[in-house]
């Protein structure tokens, strides 16, 4: 009976993995298709990648997406980390109220946030474009960073920074050399979530942009109305980019830990 359950569990796991990854594999394969067909592979070709790099509008949307994602990630990570550290030193009532407000944008449907930000920019007469999209991305990324950093801060001794200052450290040194290294995993995970949310966003970006400024999601949406295999090419490049980033993030700590173990062995 137990063996049957294990077999069924493994089969379900394999089916789930196939369900998630087969479409991505299918997309990668057809990005090298010779014809425009999205269902019939007629031969290997790099023409859609050539078309992608020769398409000025597509490359501009890609650069806009990457630049906004990077800037929004850096700003929201800094703001979110400082906010989380500040909340850890606040009273229970203040912390509870702020955390409730922080959770509200996450629980809110994106369409509501998008319309709210659009009305905000229109009310104050802000011309919609690159800056409004950047501000919107910072706005919805920051709560995710706070949620990622707060559990790490809760797990620390609340007197850690005070102990560091008692031993002669300045407040800045206590923050950068004692507190931040301890909560670095939470900061990194928050930054990764912020980058992914910004890079992937469509609904909010669509409502707050203007002046011909498009990110990749908006560009793909406009291209999806007609058959264009260039979509497969740009999507494949994004998958490769994200895969490389994830590999680097996971491999670098392993290399560091192995070096530290080797150094400890040499010293001992």
From TrEMBL:
It is a multi-pass membrane protein. GO terms for cellular component: plasma membrane. This is ABC transporter permease. Belongs to the binding-protein-dependent transport system permease family. CysTW subfamily. One of its GO terms (biological process) is transmembrane transport. It comes from the Bacteria. Pfam families: BPD_transp_1. The keyword Ligase does not apply. Residues 62-249 form the ABC transmembrane type-1 domain. The chain crosses the membrane at residues 12-32, 62-85, 106-124, 229-255. SUPFAM superfamilies: MetI-like. It is found in: Cell membrane. Its main location: membrane. The lineage of its organism: Bacteria, Bacillati, Bacillota, Clostridia, Eubacteriales.
């Amino acid at each position: 009976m137990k063996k049957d359950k294990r077999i069924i569990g493994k089969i379900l796991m394999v089916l789930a993995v196939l369900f998630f990854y087969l479409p991505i594999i299918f997309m990668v394969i057809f990005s090298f298709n010779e014809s425009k067909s999205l269902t019939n592979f007629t031969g290997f070709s790099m023409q859609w990648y050539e078309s992608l790099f020769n398409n000025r509008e597509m490359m501009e949307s890609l650069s806009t997406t990457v630049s906004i994602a990077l800037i929004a990630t850096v700003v929201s990570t800094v703001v979110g980390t400082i906010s989380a550290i500040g909340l850890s030193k606040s009273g229970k009532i203040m912390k509870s109220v702020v955390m409730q407000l922080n959770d509200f944008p996450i629980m809110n449907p994106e369409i509501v946030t998008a319309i709210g930000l659009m009305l905000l920019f229109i009310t104050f007469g802000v011309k919609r474009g690159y800056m409004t999209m950047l501000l919107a991305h910072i706005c919805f990324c920051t709560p995710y960073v706070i949620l990622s950093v707060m559990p790490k801060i809760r797990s620390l001794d609340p007197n850690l920074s005070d102990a560091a200052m008692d031993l002669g450290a300045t407040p800045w040194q206590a923050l950068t050399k004692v507190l931040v290294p301890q909560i670095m995993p939470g900061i990194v995970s928050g930054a990764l979530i912020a980058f992914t949310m910004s890079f992937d966003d469509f609904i909010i970006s669509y409502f707050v942009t203007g002046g011909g400024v498009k990110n990749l999601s908006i560009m793909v949406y406009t291209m999806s109305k007609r058959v264009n295999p260039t979509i497969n090419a740009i999507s494949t490049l994004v998958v490769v980019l994200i895969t490389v980033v994830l590999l680097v993030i996971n491999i670098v700590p392993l290399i560091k830990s192995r070096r530290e173990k080797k150094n400890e062995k040499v010293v001992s």
